[in-house]
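Running this now, will post back.
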Amino acid sequence: MNNASQQHWDKVYETKAENEVSWFQANPQHAGELMKLFNLPPGAAIIDIGGGDSLFADAMLAAGYKNITVLDISAAAIYRAIARLGEKAGRVTWIVSDITSFKPKKKYDLWHDRAAFHFLITEEQITQYVSIAGEAVKKDGYMLLGTFSENGPTKCSGLEIKQYSEPAMTARFAADFERLKCLYEDHVTPANKVQSFIFCGFRRK
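Update: finished.
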């Protein structure tokens, strides 16, 4: 695991409240719209990459999904999510891992990532992520991926990020995934700043 990255994110989650981080979103808007394309059954295996203490797992539980995994590099983020969910946390599988060293032990019907992928800026990191996602998602399974768009910020939480356009994101995953649909979303942060995101839904070939 990348210790420097882990320490960075642990510090973020240990020093900022849930609604003080820029990515906080009380209602995962994009998820509802694109999830309709996937039409997943309640038992579908769903993994949230870089989920931290986001409310995506809460939303999936509330929607009746029963097989949810959350992966994050920060143990502090995971502990916070577990504390928030209380007894419901036992219905989620929690994994503390750097995504580029993640070794999936099962196949998933949905790989969800809102704003983790764009923190990978070297070719080696990006290639590892693409390979792991291809390995982890079942044939005809889905990926829902969100990053800053070309009109979005160039940094987040003090770190450089990589912006994506629809063609660039599609090309990155073309070997294993077919793009279904992309949406643009302006996310308003708790500090009332606007961040331009792109979200794309893919099907595993």
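The first strand starts at residue 45 and ends at 49. More later if anyone needs it.
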